[in-house]
Amino acid sequence: MSLNIPSLKDSVSPEEWQLRVDLAACYRLVAAYGWSDLVFTHVSARIPGPEHHFLINPYGLMFDEITASSLVKVDQNCKMLSDSPFPVNPAGFTIHSAVHAAREDAGCVLHTHTRSGVAVSAQKDGVLPISQQSTFVLASLAYHDYEGVAFRDEEKPRLQADLGHKNFLMLRNHGLLTVGPTIADAFLSMYIFESTCQIQIAAQSGGAALTQVNPQIVDGVAHAMKVQTGSLGGAFVWPALIRKLERLDPGYQT
Fold first, then answer.
1. Which residues of the chain have pLDDT under 70?
2. How many CB atoms are located within 10 Å of the residue 31 CB?
3. Which residues lie below 8 Å from residue 14, measured CB to CB, with a gap of 6+?
4. Does residue 226 form part of some domain?
5. Burial code of 204-218, b = ≥16 C-beta within 10 A, e = fewer?
6. 51 in any annotated domain
7. Closest by alpha carbon to 6, among 219, 254, 249, 198?
8. Alpha-carbon distance values, 47 to 2, 52, 72 (Å)
9. Distance between CA atoms of 20 and 156, rounded to whole angstroms?
C-alpha cells in the first residue's frame, strides 16, 4: 500500500532536501542490514543553521518505508515544526536530544536495539578486544548504565557526562549508539560497532579461550583508521552504499 506522501523537494532548501535524502537512505540501509527494531529507535540528523532543528522518523513507519519527504522536522524538544500525517515520539528523542545538545559536532545520532548489540551491552566487561573491528570501537568507546526506558530529562546530564567526546556509546542492557558529524560517519561507525558485537557473541559461543589484542595495538588504532579511509571517514564508503541501495529500492528519494 502506498503512503502517498507529497514531495517536499520544492518546499525546503536544497541543503535540507539533500539531508532528507541521505537520512532516508540511512533508515533504509539500517533495515537492509537487519538492525531495525520494528518501528522503534531513531536516527536523527541536525539541519544546518543556528536554529538547532532536526529530522527524525515519523513514529509508526517501518524503516524500509521511510522517504525523504516523510521525515519530520522537530526542535530540541521534539516539537513538530512541519506538517505531517504521522506522529513523532518525544520520549524516543530524549537520548538523541541529549547528545545533540552536548555535542556541537553531532550532525547525526544513530541508535539500535540489535540482538548482538543488546547481548554485549548486558555483559559486565562490555566490548572485548578480540577482533580488528573491536579495536576501532575501543578507541572511542563510552558506557552508560541502564536507568529504565529513557524518557526522563533528569537522565540527560548523566548520559552526556558518560558520552563525553566519544563516538561509540554502549547503553548497558539497552543497545548501541553512534555519533558522527555526518550521516555517513554515524552509519559507518554503527556498521563497525554492530560487527564487533556479532563477532564477540560468535566467538564466545565457541566455548574456547579467547585471544585478546595487544593493548598497544588498540592505542594505535586512531592512526590506523586514518590510513584505512584517509580523511574522508564515512564519505569513503557512502557512495557505494547509495549505489547498493539504489539497486535494492530507490524509493527513499521521494
1. 1-2, 222-232
2. 17
3. none
4. yes
5. eeeeeeeeebeeeeb
6. yes
7. 254
8. 27, 7, 11
9. 27
Cell 524516543 appears where?
A: 92
Helix orientation angle between 183-205 and 238-248, rounded to the nearest 10 degrees: 80
- 3-state secondary structure string, the chain? CCCCCCCCCCCCCHHHHHHHHHHHHHHHHHHHCCCCECCECCEEEEECCCCCEEEECCCCCCHHHCCCCCCEEECCCCCECCCCCCCCCCHHHHHHHHHHHHCCCCCEEEEECCHHHHHHHCCCCCCCCCCHHHHHHHCCEEEECCCCCCCCHHHHHHHHHHHCCCCEEEECCCEEEEEECCHHHHHHHHHHHHHHHHHHHHHHHCCCCCCCCCHHHHHCHHHHHHHHHCCCHHHHCHHHHHHHHHHHCHHHHC
Distance (Å, whole) CA 4 – CA 26:
21
* Domains in the chain, number: 1
CA 92 from centroid of its chain's CA atoms: 13
Domain that holds residue 195: 14-245
Distance between start and end Cα atoms, the chain: 15
Report pTM: 0.93
Residue 9, in any domain of the structure: no
Please report, for the domain that includes residue 181, its CATH number: 3.40.225.10
179 falls within a domain: yes
Residues 165-207: tens digit of each pLDDT: 999 999 999 999 999 999 999 999 999 999 999 999 999 999 9
